[in-house]
Automatic annotation (TrEMBL):
Gene name tied to this protein: LOC130497568
Family, as annotated: Belongs to the ICR family.
Protein name: Interactor of constitutive active ROPs 1-like
Sorted UniProt keywords: Coiled coil, Membrane, Transmembrane, Transmembrane helix
Membrane-spanning residues: 56-75
This protein's record includes keyword Transmembrane helix: yes
Coiled-coil ranges (or none): 130-157
Source superkingdom: Eukaryota
Lineage of the species this protein comes from: Eukaryota, Viridiplantae, Streptophyta, Embryophyta, Tracheophyta
Alphabetized InterPro entries for the sequence: ICR (IPR029688)
Length: 198
C-alpha cells in the first residue's frame, strides 16, 4: 500500500529548489524549497511496486501541481526582483537628479558668496572714500573758517586804512588850503612892493 505524507515547515532561506534523497529505511524523500518554505514528500517502497496504479497517476498530478506552485513562486520572485531593480533604477535616477540639483545649488551658492564678497569689498571701498571725503570736507571747512577770519581781519584793516586815508585826505586838503593861502598872500605882498617901487 502506498504510504504518502506531506510535511510543510518554515525554515531559513535555502538555495535548494528540488532534491530527491533516499534515507536508511529505503524511503525516497522529494524535497522542494523556495523562499524559506520547504515541502517534503516521503514515498515508501510500496510506491515503487505500484508504479502503474491510479495512485501513481495521483502522485504525478500532485508533482505537476507542486511544480506549478514552484514555477508560480519563482515567477513571483522574479517579478519582485524586477520590480526591485526598477525601483533601484528609479531611485538611482532620482539620486542623480538630486545630485545635479545639489551641484547646481552649490554653484549658485558659490556665485552668491562671490557676489557677497564683491559687494563687501565695494562697501569697504565706499566707506574708505566716504571717510576720505569727510576728512576733505573737514579740511575745506577749516580753510573756509580761516579764510573767513582772514576776511574779517582784512575788512577791519581796510576800515582802519579807510579812516586813516580819510584823515590823511583831510590833512592834505588843509595843508593844501594853507599853502594856497600863503601863496596868495605872498603874491599880494609882492605886487604891493612892486607898486611901491614904481
Amino acid at each position: 500500500m502506498l504510504q504518502m505524507m506531506m510535511q510543510t515547515r518554515e525554515t531559513s532561506q535555502s538555495q535548494e529548489i528540488y532534491k530527491k534523497t533516499w534515507d536508511a529505511s529505503g524511503e525516497q524523500r522529494l524535497v522542494v524549497s523556495f523562499q524559506g518554505a520547504k515541502e517534503v514528500m516521503i514515498i515508501t517502497k510500496d510506491y515503487l511496486q505500484l508504479r502503474h496504479s491510479s495512485q501513481y497517476i495521483y502522485y504525478i498530478l500532485y508533482v505537476l501541481c507542486l511544480n506549478l506552485k514552484i514555477i508560480y513562486a519563482f515567477v513571483s520572485f522574479s517579478i519582485q526582483i524586477i520590480t526591485t531593480c526598477d525601483t533601484d533604477t528609479r531611485w538611482s535616477k532620482e539620486n542623480e537628479i538630486l545630485k545635479s540639483q545639489l551641484n547646481d545649488s552649490a554653484s549658485e551658492m558659490s556665485k552668491v558668496k562671490a557676489n557677497e564678497d564683491e559687494m563687501a569689498s565695494n562697501v569697504c571701498r565706499i566707506g574708505e572714500e566716504l571717510e576720505e571725503s569727510r576728512e576733505e570736507k573737514a579740511q575745506i571747512k577749516e580753510k573756509l573758517e580761516f579764510m573767513g577770519e582772514t576776511k574779517e581781519a582784512l575788512e577791519a584793516e581796510m576800515k582802519t586804512l579807510g579812516v586813516q586815508t580819510e584823515q590823511w585826505r583831510k590833512a592834505a586838503d588843509a595843508a593844501a588850503a594853507v599853502l594856497s593861502g600863503e601863496c596868495e598872500m605872498n603874491g599880494r605882498d609882492g605886487s604891493r612892493s612892486l607898486d611901491k617901487s614904481l
